[in-house]
Task: structure prediction
Amino acid sequence: MNLAGLDFDNIPPFSVPMRFFFVAPVFAFISALIIAVAGESMWLTRWHPATLAVTHAIVLGVISMIMCGAILQLLPVLAGKSLPKVKLISTLTVILMAAGTLSLIRAFLANMLVLGLDSSNSNFFFAVSGISFTLGLGGFICAILWLIRQRSQASVSINTMRLGFIAMLVVGIIASLLLAGYLFASQFNITKQLTDSHASWGLIGWISLVIIGVSFQVLPMFHVAPAFPRWCSRYLPGFLFITLLIYTLMTLVITQLTVIDSIVIESIVDSAVWQFIQTICIGLLQLSLMVYAVTAMHCLYRRKRKISDASVTCWFIALTCLFLCCAISLVMSLVMSLDMGLMNNSVTSVEALLFNLGWSPLTLASIFIYGWILSVIMAMIIKIVPFLAYLHLQRQCGFHLQAFALLPNMHELLSKSRMQYLLYSHVFSLFALCMTLYSPQNYWLLSLAIIGQFGYLLFLMIKVSSRYRHITSAIDEALLS
Amino acid sequence: MHTIPDFMTAQHRHCDDSFIAAESAVSAKKWPEADSQWAIFTTDLEIHLQQEETILFPAFEQATGMTMGPTQVMRAEHAQMRQLVAEMTQQLSVQNKDLFLGLSETLMILMQQHNMKEEQMLYPMTQAHLPDADAVLQQVKAYS
Ligand SMILES: [Fe+2]
Ligand SMILES: [Fe+2]
Result:
């Protein structure tokens, strides 16, 4: 064990994670704006420029942004490690990520005539965003990976998060391939098939694995729940990662088969076999996420601390959405493969029924992002922000007990009723999203709901920060006197 | 219970139980029950903190030569935990439910992140670096 690296005292200043958290609502507002301007058409297909712009604004600008801030803060507690020059690195990361997301949005929107943007320079914006993300997010992730390079058996959380960080690098590599395909008029011809891999590595690999890793630690800590069973915390993340890897390799094999169109590979194994393995992988991914959802709900249900808590409700909503998403798509893919095999009419009607209810890849992705991921983000942020404020104030006091008397309690930093309102506004956005997916003419409701939810989040964060600054100076005075 | 991490972690869980029992009794305004659970919690917690401060931390400091590092942070957090506990005892005696619960939320988080650092890093390191870990564990068990 490396003793020199153990550093409890060196947690990054309060402003470091907060700069990530404050940028996030801005991208939520931008998404709401695009939704409002694009109108009904963007809900018809996931390939619509506005749909791509909004997805990336939410996933990169809101979710990844908040995750990076939270990761910086969690590492000292989970691993006893912190980044050197953390203020500089975090500021650069925020700026580069924000610039990258903005240019990506601009590049996607270039093809929308309604906006009257100049579409000729979308290549330029794609390139800018590629460079910004490589330097910003890529550099950040590499720095964190270097920091936690030593494997330890003790921390299943860190081991899982490490897989998530590696997955982020894979997302970056696939994104560069997609970008190269786009910029150089698809000489590589791997674009569309790789988009699904890109999305899976992003949503399941990067975001879900990091969330799962954090949950192993945070659920027992914040809610005094029993620890996750060992098979789940040890092996499930690795299983997810390897399944994703095989799935992507299969995609590559299939695309290369069509590209080369040579008999060499085809003669050895029928291409249907590759497709079959790919389908199995997707099924396994869905099953393991369902297993995680059930296990996490079981742990949370057996938590010792039963006192009412908005963040527990958020977790239950998140896990329910995750389970439903995976279960319904598993049923869908089973139905479809049966359908191909049997040509059975009754099966087709089930499929038709699900489609009529609005279940499509777009629905799946939307519920996965807003129902599962954003619910967890909400659950975490209402715990983390007041906790961090408290932690820093408490550090500041040290052994000085008069100063310690000035500390507010957690409810004074962020009251229970306000957490509850944030929860309601999130549930309302989720409801508005479902309404819009079912019938796209409700898009304005979704746009308003997102503005309301993130506006309120922004308001709460400003409140906590100003309270924090106020008390810091009071403690400073007490320490001097 | 044969290693320092196992034994000390079990004590953390044990303290959680009475803490949560007291907290939910207060939130249901069952004051007599809250009083008795709180008494159990404060006694157990104090013994645990003293076991660390008088036996475990000095042993760690001696074995690693780190006297100003992690153990100092832990000691400061102990002081803050004691301060919060004292305030909560005061609020319990005047049966102020809201203030007690606000403080209990705070102590909960302070205590959990403290315990996590000990369980994940400090205890395993102590076990690994002490030449006589078993003897130290016997000393801890004998302390009360
Ligand atoms: Fe301790
Ligand atoms: Fe302890």
About this structure: The radius of gyration of chain A is 23 Å.
